[in-house]
Amino acid sequence: MAELLSDGEIDTALAELPGWRRAGDSLVRTVESPSFPDAVELVGKVAEAAEAANHHPDIDIRWRKVTYTLSTHSAGGLTQLDLDLAAQIDALAG
Ligand SMILES: C[C@H](O)[C@H](O)[C@H]1CNC2=NC(N)=NC(=O)C2=N1
Fold first, then answer.
1. Ligand 1 neighbourhood includes 21 CB (under 6 angstroms)
2. Complex confidence, ipTM
3. Which of 14, 19, 24, 70 has the fewest CB atoms below 10 angstroms from its CB?
């Protein structure tokens, strides 16, 4: 099972993930797309990456703004799985 990251490890990682903020035991980023179809298309790509990693974000779609919330529920907080998925979402969001 993935191990929980320390506060220091999380802070260090967040320096490389500018769009993301920490909210308790989660990482959160809102991505604004040009249109609702673009936003949903991105959600589809994130869903594919998440399924491949067997690590799944909470996704809140509000018109063309989508908020992704990452946490490793099985570990009770943030792990490397969340950092990896955050980086993948950044790459897909462009
Ligand atoms: C059985 C399966 O591995 C688990 O349910 C996985 C699936 N996806 C998951 N996604 C996230 N974000 N956290 C988890 O703990 C988690 N657990």
1. no
2. 0.85
3. 24
